[in-house]
Amino acid sequence: MSDRGIISPADRSRPLVRWTLGSGQVVILVLLALAGLGPILWLAKAAISQPGDIASNPLGLWSGQPQWQNIETAWTRLRVGPALINTVWIALGNWAVSVLVATTGGYALAILRPGYAKFVNGALLATLFIPGVISLVPLYLTVIDVPIIGGSLINTYWAIWLPAGASAFNVIITGRFFANLPAELFEAAKIDGVGNFRMFTSLVLPLSGPIIGVVSLLSIIAAWREFLWPKLVLPDRTKQPLSVMLPSIRDNVQVNLFMAGLLISVVLPIVIFLLFQRYFIRGAGLAGGIKG
Amino acid sequence: MTRTARWIRNGGISTLVFLIPTLLVFGLFSWWPIARGLVLAFQQTNLVEPAQWVGFGNFRKVLADPLLLTAVRNTAWFALLALVFGYPAPLALAVFVRELRRGRALFSVLAYLPVVLPPVVAILLWRVFYDASDDGLFNTLARGIGLGPFQWLQDAHSAMPSIVLEATWANAGSTMIIYLAALSGVRTDLYEAAEIDGASIWRRVVHVTLPQLRTILMITLLLQIIGTFQVFTEPFLFTGGGPANATTTILMLLYNYAFINGDYGGATALSVLLALFLGLLSLLYFRLTRRWGTT
Description:
The structure holds two protein chains of two kinds. Helices cover 73% and strands 0% of the residues of chain A. Chain A is built from 17 helices and no strands. Chain A has helices spanning 9-12, 15-36, 38-47, 51-56, 69-76, 80-112, 117-129, 136-144, 158-165, 168-179, 183-191, 196-207, 209-225, 228-233, 242-249, 255-275, 277-290. In chain A, α3 packs across α16 (255-275) and α7 (117-129) packs across α10 (168-179). Chain B is mostly helical. Chain B has one domain: MetI-like (MetI-like fold), CATH 1.10.3720.10. Chain B is 74% helix and 1% strand. In chain B, α3 (57-64) packs across α15 (264-294), α5 (88-99) runs parallel beside α9 and α10 (189-196) packs antiparallel against α11. Chain B starts with a helix and ends with a helix.
C-alpha cells in the first residue's frame, strides 16, 4: 500500500503547507527533546555536581569539576548498588514465572484444549474484568498466610514473583499466538505419535520467540515500575528494590548523591529501551488493544 | 476401555500437568484473593481472633467517613485534569508524526522516553524540579517569564495540578504510540476521495481521520479514567495526600484504612465499591475492544 497520509504529494508542493510542516516539525522536535531528553540530561548533570550548584543554579549548563565520586558514593554508601541487584533479581524471577505460566497455560488452553478449557478461560477473562484494586488487601493477607502451602512469604521474593505470574493478559496473548500457528503442524505431529510434552518442547517453543519476547519485556518492565506491592511485602530494607528504597532515603542524604542514585536506577531501563525500541513500541500498541 | 482410561490415553494427564502452573498461580494469587475480598468486605478481622460477620457494617462505616467525599472529589479532580492536560496532546502529536516522511522513529523514541523511566524515579526527580524556593528549577524558569515563585506542591490549589502535570508527562508517550499504531490502520483511499472532493487538510483530519479512530479514542478514554481512579504512587510520593488532604485519593484512603489503621474490612469494603464502579467501565471497554478487534 502507498504511504500516503492526510497530506497528499500535491499539498506538499504548496509553499504554505511546506512551510507549516517544516516549522511545525522543528518546533515539535525541540519541545519533545526538551520534555523527553531534558529531564534525563539534567539528572545526569546533577548527579555529578556539587550539592551547592544544584541549589543555586539549577539551569546552569555546566558546573565546574565533574564529581564522578558521587556515583561511587551512592552505589556503596547509600546502598543503591545492592538495591539495584535486588531489582534485577525481582525482574528475573518475574520473567521466569511469567514466561513459564504464559507458555504452559497458553499451550494447554489454546492447543491441547481439554473439555474444561472454557471454564479456565472464563476464569482468566474474569480477572481482566475485575480491577486489581479489589484484591490488593486480600492478596496481602494471602501472602502473609498462604493457603495449602502454609507459612508467610513476607520478606521473600516469592511474594512478588508468584503474583506477577498471574497475568491473564500474558496467558491470553500467548494462547492467541499459539492458536495462530499453522494447525497442520500439530496434526502432523499427532499422527506421527508425538506426545504433548515433545510437541511443546520441540514444536511450540522454537516457534514462539516473538511472543516470549513480548511477555519477557512486559514482565521485566512491570518489575522495574512496581512500588506499592514490593513496599508492602518487603519490609526488610536489605531486600528492597530501588523503587522502595529510594523514597525512604530521600530526606536524609545530600541532593547530589541522591541524584546519582536516581541516575544509576534509570540507566538500565533506558539502555534496554534503546536496544529493543521496536518491541516496546509494538508492545505498547498491543497493550492498548486488549489490556484492562 | 473405561472413560478414565481413554482420558489418560488421550493425554488428559499431561494436559493437566501443563495447566498446573496457571491453576496454581491464578488460584492462589488471583482467584482466591478476589473471592476472599468479597467475603472480607462483610467481616471484621484483626488477623488474631476469628473474623466476625458484620453485614453491611463496613460499607456503612466507609460511606459515613467524611474523608471519603474528599477523596472521591480529589480523585475526580485528578481524572478531569488528566483528561484536560493529557488527552488531546498525544492525539495531535500522533496525527502530525504520522504525516512526516522522515524521522518518525526519532519522534516516537523521544516521546516514549519518559514512559521508560520508573515512575518512582520520575516522581522523585520532579520533586526536585518543584522545589518551592526561589532557586527551584521550575521557579527559575517561571522567573524567566516574570512569574512566581510558586509553592507548587505545598499549596492546596496548585498541588493537584502539579501532580497531574508530571503524570501527564510520564504517560503521554504510551498513548501517542497507541494512536500511531491505530493511524497505520486508517484507510488511505478515503483521503484521496476527500481530496478529490476538495476537502482541506484540516477537514480531512476532522471528517476522515478522527471518525476512523473513534473506537480507539473511546478505549484510551476509558483506560485513562480506569487508571486515574486508581492513582496512588504520585500523590503518595509527591505530597503524602497533603496539604490539608488536598491530594488524598481513593486509593490513598484505602491504603490508610488497611495498612495504617489495620482495618482490613473497611479497606476491602472501599475497594469493592471502587471495583464496582471501575468494573462497569471495563465492561464497556471490553465490548468496545471486541468490536475494534473484529473490524
